[in-house]
């Protein structure tokens, strides 16, 4: 809040924006030591001011290799607290998947889980990124890496749009990663993924560029 044209206690007119710490119907309490101010007399004007906040980020190259060091709360910024610690595992899986795809020009499948896990552990070790991986989580991430699910794509598209808006200075951006999974929606048994020629077929992704 910014005060101006207050009669009496004129020193408050020259202060920087002040934080309100309590309110009632007719009063506001400020985070301010006014013991040296002159006596308040009557009325004045109060303005609500949005105070800019400087936010620093690590570069992609630095953050990708060690995402924990890029956030004030490590990797704990997760949209689902029931999956505490899942973000680290998903990032490790992403490391391995990208390494595999770059080398083989395709996304991995269930048969490649062991190889991808070796790549992920190697990448994490050289990056100083320590992680204990649960095999079921890693297996699901790798097995479905090449599948494009329209609702999930739309979800991430919405997040990207919000982050672009935040670049203008409105709202606080994410810092610095968001890992999301809906593994509970995956089928629990064997799946027939043979194409039927309909729009409901799995999207077949051809990997043709380096990450």
Overview of the molecule:
- It is a single chain.
- This protein is of the alpha+beta class.
- It has 2 domains: 2-47, no CATH class; 60-185, Ubiquitin-activating enzyme E1, inactive adenylation domain, subdomain 2 (Rossmann fold, 3-Layer(aba) Sandwich), CATH 3.40.50.12550.
- Helix content is 31%, strand content 9%.
- It contains 5 helices and 6 strands, in the order ββββββααααα.
- Strands 1-6 form a two-stranded antiparallel sheet. A two-stranded antiparallel ribbon has the order 2-5.
- Strand 3 and strand 4 form a beta hairpin.
- Helix 2 packs across helix 4 (135-143).
- The radius of gyration is 26 Å and the shape is elongated.
- The chain starts with a strand and ends in a 45-residue tail after the last helix.
Brief rundown of the structure:
With 211 residues, this protein is an alpha+beta fold. It has helices at 60-65, 86-104, 113-127, 135-143, 150-166; strands at residues 2-4, 7-8, 20-23, 28-30, 40-42, 45-47.
Tally of separate helices: 5
Strand elements, count:
6
Provide the residue-averaged pLDDT: 79
Please tell me the total number of domains. 2
Task: Give the N-to-C terminal Cα separation.
Answer: 47 Å
| CATH fold-type name of the largest domain | Rossmann fold
Secondary structural class? alpha+beta
Query: Mind telling me the CATH class of the largest domain?
Result: Alpha Beta
CATH evolutionary superfamily of the largest domain = Ubiquitin-activating enzyme E1, inactive adenylation domain, subdomain 2
User: What is the topology, as strand order, of the major beta sheet?
Assistant: 1-6
**Global geometry:** elongated
Measured as a percent range, the helix fraction is 25-40%
Order of helices and strands: EEEEEEHHHHH
**Largest sheet descriptor:** 2 strands, antiparallel
- Strand residue content: 5-15%
Low-confidence stretches: 204-211
